[in-house]
Amino acid sequence: MQALVYEGPQQLRLRDLENPRPEAGEALVRVERVGICGSDLHAYHGHDDRRPAPLILGHEPAGTVVSGPDAGRRVAVNPLVTCGRCRSCLSGRQNLCPDREILSMPPREGAFAEYIAVPYTNLFTVPDALGIAQAALAEPMAVAYHAVRLALAQIDSNLSTGTAFVIGGGAIGLGAALVLRARGLGRVVVLEANPLRREVLSAEPGLEVRSADDAALSGAGGCDLVVDAVGGEATRRIASDKARAGGVIIHPGLQGGLEGLDIRRMTLQEITFIGCYTYTMVDFAETVEWLAGGRFGALAWIEERPLAEGATAFAEIVDGRCAAPKVILDPTGSSTR
Predict the structure, then answer these.
(1) Where are the alpha helices (DSSP H) in the chain?
(2) Contact predicate 28/65, CB 8 Å
(3) What keywords were assigned to this record (predicted)?
(4) Rounded Cα gap, residues 235 and 229, in angstroms
(5) CATH class of 2-137+299-330
(6) What is the pLDDT of residues 87-114, one digit of tens each?
(7) For the purposes of burial, counting CB atoms within 10 Å of the CB of 118, is it exposed (0-12), middle (13-18) or buried (19 or more)?
(8) 145-201: per-residue pLDDT in tens?
């Protein structure tokens, strides 16, 4: 099979490798689409010790089962492999399993390849009404769905009159904004630094898209919910500033660092801070249903490219030359730019 292999900082190369061999309880899946995630970019820069080179990155796949009794089944793949036996798994919080593994981290190779081996329990049927490229959004949209679910459980105001402030217009930030829109939140503001991406986001109905220097954003407080989909020091400072007294900050962003939160203000104003990681099995299943039912909207903001152009796509995203909130690679070679 062909695979896009991370070989060192900012080095990706298309290589011919042997097909993976499924173990007991696993299926061989032909990857038909796979998204590029921010964590892939983090690894691409050499900033993720959990993803050492050489390694196949990519953990947002959708495709078709080619082995076993489910051969021919179209699936979205939950890349989070868990033990199924610990307290977290048994309570339905599989994302907190202490023995969790994920595609694109050893010992599991990722999905920037023609084939992957994955447990049957991680496969979710893609309804006929859902395109395979849209099915590849299941993983990032599940992150957003999970984040909003946790946050809304803590909101103490009427959603129809509430205001949400989403920091970051990539797939997870945009996904969170789309979930909030569907949940009936009164006002959803998205902060995005890249002007090319802002133009794409502005076409999405019901969202206010702003740049960081927008004068309308001045002033502290006022937001019932802040979603930090970036997770850096600067964005945590913005989140601390924008949340109202009694408001909620949800933090799915993974840039890292220890600074940025105004703990004194959060304490005095009783602002709830929630860290959130990935999703549960139920979140993933419900996200696939939302995608098939059109609840995220038209999903016209994705861009498809052949796997062979993966290295170019990474470089353009890093340089800010890519407008799409999500680039999806096609290992089958059927996509054209």
Answers:
(1) 38-44, 87-90, 132-135, 138-152, 171-182, 195-201, 233-242, 263-268, 281-292, 310-318
(2) yes
(3) Oxidoreductase
(4) 9
(5) alpha beta
(6) 999 999 999 999 999 999 999 999 999 9
(7) buried
(8) 999 999 999 999 899 999 999 999 999 999 999 999 999 999 999 999 999 999 999
CA distance 196 to 179: 23
Our CA angle for 334, 320, 233, nearest 5°, is: 125
Q: Each residue of 272-287: b (16+ CB within 10 Å) or e?
A: bbeebebbbbebbbbb
Span 14-62, pLDDT tens digits: 999 999 999 999 999 999 999 999 999 999 999 999 999 999 999 999 9
Domain ranges of the chain: 2-137+299-330, 142-275
Count CB-CB contacts under 10 A for residue 122.
20
Matching fold, domains 2-137+299-330 and 142-275: no
Residue type, 191: L
Global model pTM greater than 0.85: yes
Q: What sign results for the dihedral spanned by CA atoms 296, 298, 300, 302?
A: positive
Question: How distant, in Å, are the alpha carbons of 16, 115, 334, 336 from that of 3?
Answer: 6, 9, 16, 18
What's the Rg (C-alpha) of the chain?
19
Give me the architecture of the 142-275 domain, per CATH: 3-Layer(aba) Sandwich (3.40)
- Please say whether the beta carbons of 198 and 223 come within 8 A: no
Residue 187's φ and ψ, nearest 5 degrees, are: -145, 130
DSSP structure string for 74-111? EEEE--EE--S-SHHHHTT-GGG-TT-EETTBTTB--S
* 121 phi, psi to nearest 5 deg: -65, -15
